Amino acid sequence: MILSGTMQINSKQHLEIGGCDTVALAEEFGTPLFIMDEEQMRKNCRRYLQAMQENYPRGKIIYAGKAFLVLAMASLIKEEGLGLDVVSGGELYTALKAGFPPEHIFFHGNNKSRTELSEALKAKVGTIIVDSLSELKELLELSRGREQKVPIYLRIKPGIDTHTHDYIQTGQDDSKFGLGFSKAIGAVRLVLSAAPYLDLKGFHCHIGSQIFQLEPFRLAARAMVGFMAEVRSETGYVAPELDLGGGLGIRYLKNDDPPSIEKFVQVITAAVKETAKREDFPLPKLLLEPGRSISGEAGITLYRVGVIKDIPGGRSFASIDGGMTDNIRPALYQAGYEAMVANKALQQPTKKVTVAGKACESGDLLIKDIYLPPLQKNDLLAVFSTGAYCYSMASNYNRNPRPAVIFVNNGKARVVVRRESYDDLIGLDVL
Ligand code: LLP
Predict the structure, then answer these.
(1) Which of 81, 115, 251, 351 fits as disulfide partner to 256, beta carbons 3.0 to 4.6 Å?
(2) Ligand 1 test: best mutation among 110, 251, 289, most atoms within 8 Å of CB?
(3) How far is the CA of 246 from the centre of ligand 1 (A)?
C-alpha cells in the first residue's frame, strides 16, 4: 500500500483522499475517475520553492505542464507562484485561457511550427527555448518581422546518460532534443552577430525523466556551467540564466525510494555553485522544471471492476472499465503500478491477479501479477501515482470517452474536467 499526501483508510475501511471517501466519489462522479489531491500538489510546489529559496535565492521553479495541464492546474500553478513550461500551441493556449501570466511561460519543443512560434511571440511568452539551428533562423526572421525583442534559451545536450527507460531519456548525444556543445557555440555566435531582436538569456538542458540517482543531475549541472564558461572564453558571452529541466522520479512501487525534493534541489544547486566558483563564473539565475514530482503521487485513478476470469492453470484476470486509454504507461514503458481495492481497503491481499484494461489490445494490461483481496464485480480499484503523464497522454482508442478529473481538498470535490460524452467523441466528425 503506498498512501501519500492526504490518503488514508477511513472508519468504513474505504480509501479516502482529500477528506473524501473514494466509494462516494465513484458514486457521484462515475468511473474511471482521475482524482487529484490538491493539498499534496500545493505542498509539492511549496517544497520546491522553499528548497530553492534556502539553497539558491536566485532560483525559479517552473511546472512542466506536459505532466498534467488543464485550466484548473494552470490556475493552481499560478496561485502557487511557479512559472509554467509549455510544449505546444495547445498547452500555451490552455495556460493563457487560465489567465497564466505570459511572462512566466517558457515555451519548449523540438519542432515548434511557425504558427506556434508566432502564437508565442504574439502572447509575449517569457522565454522560448530554441531546440535547433533551423528554429533559431525561423525565430530570427519572425522577431525581425515583428520588430519584437524575444528572450530565448538554447537547449543543449549535455551528453549525460541516465538510468531510466530509453524512451524518457533525453540528454544523451544522439537525442532528438537540443544542440551539441559545438553547434551551440555556433548558434551563440549567430545570435550575437546577426539577431538584433533575439535576446539570448542563457541555456537549458533536460536529461530525462523518472530518475532516482542524483549523480546524473550533478554531472549535468557541472557540464552546463562548464559549457557556459567555455562559451564565455570562445565568444565573450556571459550567460545570465541556466535552466536545468526536470526529471526527479516518484514512487510508483512499494520499494521505490526516490530522493526527496529537498535533496534533489540541494544537490543541483550545490553543483552549480561549486562549478561556478571553480570556473570563476558569475552565479546564473537558476531554473528547474519539475512535472511528475509535483502532480504524480497526488493523483489516483479509480476504476470499477467488471469481468473476472480465472484461467485454469493460467492467470486470473480482473478487467476494469479503463486501461491503456487513460494510462498508456504500462504498455509504453512497462511501467509498474500499485493498487488497492478502495472499498475493501483493509482486507488481506491473498489473490494474485492481472489487472486488464478494456481496450481491444492484448498488451492492455495495467498491472501484471499484483496481490489483492479476492475481487468481485463492481469492486473499486484505486491505482496510485497516476497524477502525471496519464490524463495528459490519454486517448480515445476504441472510442472510449476520456474520464473526468476531479480535485479534492478538505472534504470537498470539484470537477476540473468533465467526463467526455459520446457526443464529444463525434463532435469533430463530418459526415
Ligand atoms: N522539462 C523538459 C524540457 C522536459 O522535456 C520534461 C519532460 C520536463 C521538464 C519534466 O520532467 P519530469 O519532472 O516530469 O520528469 N511520458 C513520460 C515522461 C516524458 C517526460 C518528457 N519530458 C512518462 O510517462 O514517463
Answers:
(1) 251
(2) 289
(3) 7
Closest CA relative to residue 39, chosen from 20, 13, 23, 21: 20
pTM for this structure?
0.97
For residue 102, whether the previous peptide bond is cis, meaning omega lies within 30 degrees of 0, is: no
User: C-alpha cell of 20?
Assistant: 473524501
Ligand 1 centre to CA of 37 (Å) is: 21
Q: What is the pLDDT along the chain (431 residues), one digit of tens a residue?
A: 789 999 999 999 999 999 999 999 999 999 999 999 999 999 999 999 999 999 999 999 999 999 999 999 999 999 999 999 999 999 999 999 999 999 999 999 999 999 999 999 999 999 999 999 999 999 999 999 999 999 999 999 988 776 666 666 666 667 788 999 989 999 999 999 988 999 999 999 999 999 999 999 999 999 999 999 999 999 999 999 999 999 999 999 999 999 999 999 999 999 999 999 999 999 999 999 999 999 999 999 999 999 999 999 989 999 999 999 999 999 999 999 999 999 999 999 999 999 999 999 999 999 999 999 999 999 999 999 999 999 999 999 999 999 999 999 999 999 999 999 999 999 999 99
The atom of ligand 1 lying closest to the CA of 393 is: 16
**What angle, 0 to 180 degrees and rounded to 10, lies between the N-to-C axes of helices 71-80 and 38-55?**
40
360 in catalytic set: yes
CA atoms 204, 207, 209, 210: torsion sign: negative
Rounded Cα distance between 268 and 231, Å, is 21
